[in-house]
Design a protein that fits this description.
Order of helices and strands: HEEHHEEEEHEEH
Distance between the termini: 37 Å
Number of helices: 5
Structural class: alpha+beta
Mean pLDDT: 85
Strand order of the largest sheet: 3-4-5-6-8-7
Largest sheet: 6 strands, antiparallel
């Protein structure tokens, strides 16, 4: 049973597969994995990349929790990469996380959208961009939650 504080912490949290992803204060992982295949892929990443991907995953799920109009977010694998979709509302374009051939880790958007190009134009020179498809990171410390959440929000609401 959740305490009143824990209940307050999950109000408005993103639902996934009928369960609330947010677990409240003090939980080991705020957004536990519902899809073991996604967890297995992330667990297979080198430690530095895994930490960065987990931080981006957390930002995606936190952002989704703040956007109740997009409905549930599905976490699945696409092209062997952790992917985040809005299957009920279809409000978003798929966001993916992975390891580029150059190393590090990346946040990918569909290359035929303007998600990456709009972000790059809004914040010129602040990130390493791969065409219209990805923001590349070498270290978790390069993730700027205030800035990168705007890209994530754009991705989750792209079709609204």
């Amino acid at each position: 049973m959740l305490s009143r504080l824990e209940e307050d912490a999950v109000i408005g949290a993103t639902e996934f597969g009928g369960t609330v992803l947010a677990q409240g204060a003090g939980a080991e992982m705020r957004y536990p994995f519902e899809n073991s295949a996604v967890k297995d892929v992330i667990d297979s990443y080198p430690p530095a990349a895994r930490d960065g991907v987990l931080r981006l995953r957390e930002l995606i799920l936190e952002t989704a929790a703040d956007l109740p109009g997009i409905g549930p977010v599905e976490e699945t694998l696409k092209w062997g990469q952790p992917s985040y979709l809005t299957p009920v509302s279809k409000s978003g374009s798929t966001l993916r996380l992975g390891i580029p051939k150059t190393g590090g880790f990346a946040l990918y958007a569909h290359c035929q959208t303007t998600i990456i190009s709009t972000f790059a134009a809004t914040f010129p020179g602040q990130d390493r961009i791969e065409g219209n498809r990805a923001i590349l990171f070498d270290r978790t410390s390069q993730i700027d939650p205030e800035r990168h959440v705007l890209l994530i929000r754009h991705g989750l609401t792209y079709h609204l």
